[in-house]
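Async update (no meeting this week)

Hi team, since we skipped the sync, here's where things stand on the single-chain job. The sequence we agreed to prioritize is pasted below, unchanged from the tracker. I ran it this morning and attached the output directly underneath so nobody has to dig for it. Comments welcome in thread, and please keep replies under the output.
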Amino acid sequence: MIEFGDFYQQIAKSPLSHWLDTLPAQLSAWQRESLHGKFKQWFNAVEHLPLLTPDRLDLLHGVQADMQQPLSAGRLEGIETMLRTLMPWRKGPFSLYGIDIDTEWHSDWKWDRVLPHISPLAGRTVLDVGCGSGYHMWRMVGAGAQFVVGIDPMQLFLCQFEAVRKLLGGDQRAHLLPLGIEQLPELAAFDTVFSMGVLYHRRSPLDHLYQLKNQLVRDGELVLETLVVEGDRHQVLVPGDRYAQMRNVYFIPSTEALKGWLEKCGFVDVKVADVCVTSLEEQRRTGWMTSESLADFLDPDDPTKTREGYPAPRRAVLVARKP
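Output:
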């Protein structure tokens, strides 16, 4: 079983200590009642990975770990076999001792777009909501964050995160919890909260923004990345059954509408930091994610539209402050 004792010890003497009133019971119930049918297989892969301490660790320019003395071919083959047991790998990439996990998403490109527009992370306590495999969490650590907590209910992502953590020497600066944002109390303890690629999956986007706000300290910063459409402050797309083959997409606002939502929820200093159309180079199928990807979700005759006829995915990054 994945243990959370180190995390409990770390938050016990921090502004997050009151989370211990509810969190251990939640995670115990999760261990007892909610494990995915493949969880044992995924967890066994993590267990069989060696705990390695890299001689060179670069979390500033990527997630890269290396040894001065290269690992043997046989050992590398064993590590890669375990990592492939955890496919599909969606968020990355990772470069670990010569094994390059070429993920579906070039999450490094998104990070490069986000980082110049946010407050420096040095010394900050950070929450990453819907963190996936934890790629951006490691980049947050690389940017100087003191402590990073990621939450994502997908259990495969938890195992991917723990696998990478083992190969990074058991680094305790980042932790992933198998929770959704709605399971968090009002912690009001994080200096920065990231929500990237989550808002359009929420049935009630304003409730999601309030939940994010409740996790921030006063003057804390929200970094929000989500799908948007072109249009004025009244423009919001409500897709039918599917959007780009995804079933659970509820509201896609214009950037101006999204700015208005944030202000309605009490955020101030709301800024649109970046807007870009997702390219076929940024999201694609790879040897580590072999099922359908963006190219399969677009109209083959008009790549500016999805197969359903909606505008192709466009993403915006907004930054806002909790007063």
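Quick observations from my side:
Residues 73-85 form the longest helix (13 residues).
The first strand starts at residue 56 and ends at 58.
Reply here if anything looks off.
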